Amino acid sequence: MDGQQSTHTAFGPAQLGLPVLAHILNASADAIVVIDENRRYLYANPAAGEIAGLPYQDLIGRDFLDNIAPRMHETILTGFRKSLTGFPGRRSSIVVRPDGSERDIEYSTMSLHHEGRPLVASIFHDITDELQQEREASALAQIASSLTLAQSMDDTLNALAASVVRATRAVACSVVLVDESGQDVKTVGADGFPGDALEAYTSTWSAATQSDSMVLRALREQKTYVINDVRAKNLANPLYVPIHHIVRRMDWDVVVATPIIYHDFSLGVLCSYFGIGTHLSNNEIDILTAIANQAAVAIENQRLYQKAQGTAALEERQRLARELHDSVSQALYGIG
User: Fold this and answer.
1) Which residues of 309-328 are buried (b: 16+ CB within 10 A; e: fewer)?
2) What is the number of other CB atoms lying within 10 angstroms of the CB of residue 78?
3) Are domains 15-126 and 130-314 of this chain identical in fold?
């Protein structure tokens, strides 16, 4: 039988049959939809419903723009019109779910015709986690390169807080430090606080963190705490009465308190603030821990640098005092 080629029957769509093709579409890990010229879903597979955050059957008849973040409408409509007229493409967009959460997608389109009607078929997949990992890696590299002794502690930790907001889903971030006695805590760096909110919160935190708060527990127990329903808890806390008007307008309702630890010694807490209904993954907690670890090194380096500067200044003052003493002694000796 050497030299003979085996023959295999090739199956086209007609041979496979509609039931088999339907099963392939429904089982696909990629989302597949068909949309008419009026932007209405005619078909959606289960994967599409999963990304949209809805039962896939509920998509049928809906305007697909309902599932797209408003800031992306103009861009996606331009691509949709091109696809309708026979110009397919590969693009990216952002899906917004009914709960307000967003998912980044990458999609390709193709034009179809059915009974004289132009249709657009699209295949897309969720790239949110991939993009998040890229942002996190970039932020960690940026934090590492920016934590230098050339800037003050405040500037260093403000930059770090800004990196947390850029790299994660946090809408704000603050860095709370404890002094070397372990008694006094204060906010040193922050980002994402609108208007006078930071000043108002800071004045309240100084009292609140002295009580049995989660931030204080994270500091003492060196353990990360995820605090839910923060708005309701702050409104119920008598210490926050003076800033209730600010608490009500804040975008966050979930706080992650991550201890900043250097060689088993608690230096402070990285507080990251997330929107209402945010559910954090283990990976997101891990990235906050990694950032807190970088903050610990930066804080300790700054403290050592300041001590070294202080020691150098003291030594310089002592040298000048000796020179002054010698010059005075010589002057007195000359007079004598």
Assistant:
1) eeeeeeeeeeeeeeeeeeee
2) 11
3) yes
Instruction: Classify the C-alpha dihedral 264-266-268-269 as positive or negative.
Output: positive
Structure token digits, residue 325: 């003493």
CATH code matching the domain that covers 130-314, chosen among 3.30.450.40, 1.20.140.10, 3.40.190.10, 3.40.50.12780: 3.30.450.40
CA separation for the pair 299, 177 (Å, rounded): 9
- Which two structure tokens, joined as six digits, stand for 120? 């657009």
Tell whether the torsion through CA atoms of 219, 225, 227 and 233 is positive or negative: negative
Domain range list for the chain: 15-126, 130-314
Element spanning 335, H or E: helix 282-335
Q: Which of 280, 231, 281, 271 has the alpha carbon at shortest distance from 251?
A: 231
Q: Report the C-alpha gap between 268 and 156 in whole angstroms.
A: 14
Higher pLDDT, 45 or 246: 45
CATH class name, domain 15-126: alpha beta
Give the tens place of pLDDT for each residue, 43-101: 999 999 999 999 999 999 999 999 999 999 999 999 999 999 989 889 999 999 998 88
